[in-house]
């Protein structure tokens, strides 16, 4: 697996995660009254102001709301200036065929990346016409192969659906349905350092044994933390940065837009 940069195994790696942008074919498409392309652009501007030298961009699903080629092309165009390489994985709102069409002549959908002293594995947990996620056998095999083939690297694993509870009862049934099988693979490999996901539209940072568990705000609407039912919060859109150190430790944080106000219009359109 070739490196995607000139970084050596002695160099730290700076990544940015963008998630759940929910773009539409129309540039002014809105979700619950929020124009999603506009909020994505604002988050990108924030990234560029705060992180001028990013090594890679991870887009962890629901890039689009409508699954249109135009929306994926817009996402690709808007995010292209951010980093030397980017990788996409699908979420439950995405359409893989259209995503592939928009990613033509790129490496955006390659599932394994070696950079610095780390390996990043990106899994497809999306199930067509289903909100919950599931890792098919080929994805579990990909995970096991990627981990086993690079025992001397530290590993970051990415997927769209949450493989642990995030404390929101309404999100429990729509996470990763076969999380047990996922963890049975992960637990066999001590080089696994972190799992990163989207889908939950909120920040999350906990530890499971030696593995860091991380979720990230959406670049558009946010889900209320701890809510028993579907509820959108007034928190601002944002992104996550991750600094992967050569020794396997990582530092990470979430940054959000300042001076952001939004009142969801639940009658505008259903999420």
UniProtKB/TrEMBL annotation:
This is 3',5'-cyclic-AMP phosphodiesterase. The keyword Iron applies. InterPro entries: Calcineurin-like_PHP (IPR004843), CNP_phosphodiesterase-III (IPR050884), GpdQ/CpdA-like (IPR026575), Metallo-depent_PP-like (IPR029052). The gene is cpdA. It comes from the Bacteria. One of its GO terms (molecular function) is 3',5'-cyclic-AMP phosphodiesterase activity. Its EC number is 3.1.4.53, 3.1.4.17. SUPFAM superfamilies: Metallo-dependent phosphatases. Belongs to the cyclic nucleotide phosphodiesterase class-III family. It is an enzyme of class 3 (hydrolase). Residues 16-202 form the Calcineurin-like phosphoesterase domain. Keywords: Hydrolase, Iron, Metal-binding. It comes from Pseudomonas fragi.
